[in-house]
Amino acid sequence: MVNMNDYLEQAVEILAQLVHFDTTSHKTNLPLISYIEEILKDAAVPYSLVPNDEGDKASLFATIGPSGPLGIGLSGHTDVVPVEGQEWHTDPFTLTQKGDQLFGRGTTDMKGFLACMLAAIPAFKAAPLQQPIYLIFSYDEEIGCTGVRPLVNQLGKDLPMPSLVLVGEPSNCQVVEAHKSITSYVTRIIGHEAHSSLLHQGVSAIEIAAKLINHLTDAQQQLKSTQNDARFDPAYSTVHVGRIDGGTARNIVAKDCEFLWEVRALPDFDGTEISQTMMAYAKKDLLAGMKSISPATDIVTEQITSVPGLASSASAVSLGMKLANQNESFVVSYGTEAGLFEDQGAASVICGPGSIEQAHKPNEFIDRAELVKCLSILGRVADHQSS
After folding, report:
1. Which of 268, 283, 306 represents a domain boundary (last residue)?
2. Rounded to 5 degrees, what are φ and ψ at 370?
3. Which of 8, 54, 66, 283, CA to CA, is 20 to 30 A from 90?
4. Closest CA to 52 of 155, 140, 161
5. 334 shares a domain with 208
6. 103 shares a domain with 49
């Protein structure tokens, strides 16, 4: 078996470099990608870039070992969530060690996994690989898993199709076989302004929004009472309104209002049904009354993002557990890029270092022991691909 203990300090050094790059999703990730490119060039590892249309971001796909039909992909995103408004005790873009904990933005989500991937390159190169190992780096996962899609669309075409993809989202290095889908929306209401003393002459966009939100609340209660997949916490699909904006002043009937909302659906439930039933309710019970006062009034719902759920195949789960040296798999309620790989034909499971409890929070950290576990898994990947 490949001994990965010698690669821990290199992983920590690489993690320090990765954390230093501020790859908050609204910023470019190209400096970080250039750093990865230099590591790959030094190791003589071939790779391809998949840039975005604007040219300010890119995904990267690298191949180690011979070509073959049974390649294993290791996939992680390079972007991180913002730190603004959070109370950090250290510089979020400087890796800071306190005991065995390594603090910095992205240490858990998910630059710790990227660091292990890169640190393991010498071990992968030294192994007598019979089938390839792919290193996959994406962007804009945090804003709807948008960046990886152009790369995923090239699998089996310009890029080789992995037989299994390990998506290294933080799972305490436990194998995750399923997660919920995420579909997010913005609903905009166009009302009709009037002085609040002449309420009957106006259409309050805020009032209409409140009725629609109440409808979504009822839908959530219905899901809670009819769905029960005990693997998940919570055990049902969820509907959540996260933000609402509207109105001009206390004494003006609001002309405009919009709210942002999402559905996190169990893998076997079509979350778009919630939007469809809400709009059917709007057309049946609300719009006619609104337009009787002003034909210009309207209700429009736009889908912002859609991240498919994950339901891994039995063979993928079996191989994932073998690589992780585990006898049990789990499910999570958060979304990942794994469902996109699965839908394209690359069987996927989630298995990565760190705890989701640390993700997106101030003073995010990863424990060195998690990096040790991750490197051990990558050693077993090398062993499996050499057998």
Report:
1. 306
2. -70, -40
3. 8
4. 140
5. no
6. yes
| The two three-digit tokens of residue 2, written as one number | 């490949």
- List, for residues 10-20, the tens digit of each pLDDT value: 999 999 999 99
Average pLDDT, the chain: 97
Give the per-residue pLDDT at 104: 98
pLDDT reported for residue 1: 64
Distances (CA, A) of 121 to 101, 126, 155, 189, 230: 24, 9, 22, 53, 39
CA distances from 108 to 104, 299, 351 (A): 9, 40, 12
Do residues 23 and 100 both lie within one domain? yes
Both ends of the chain: CA-CA distance in Å? 11
Domain limits for position 188 = 181-306
Tens-digit pLDDT profile for residues 23-50: 999 999 999 999 999 999 999 999 999 9
Q: Are residues 90 and 133 in the same domain?
A: yes
Each residue's pLDDT tens digit, 72-96? 999 999 999 999 999 999 999 999 9
Q: Are residues 73 and 148 in the same domain?
A: yes
b or e along 306-326 (b: 16 or more beta carbons within 10 Å of the residue's beta carbon)? bbbbbebeeebbebbbebbee
Whole-number Å distance between alpha carbons of 125 and 45: 9
Domain count, the chain: 2
CA dihedral 108, 110, 115, 118 (to 10 degrees): 160
- Same structural domain, 162 and 259: no
267: domain CATH number is 3.30.70.360
**Could you give phi then psi for residue 104, rounded to 5 degrees?**
155, 155
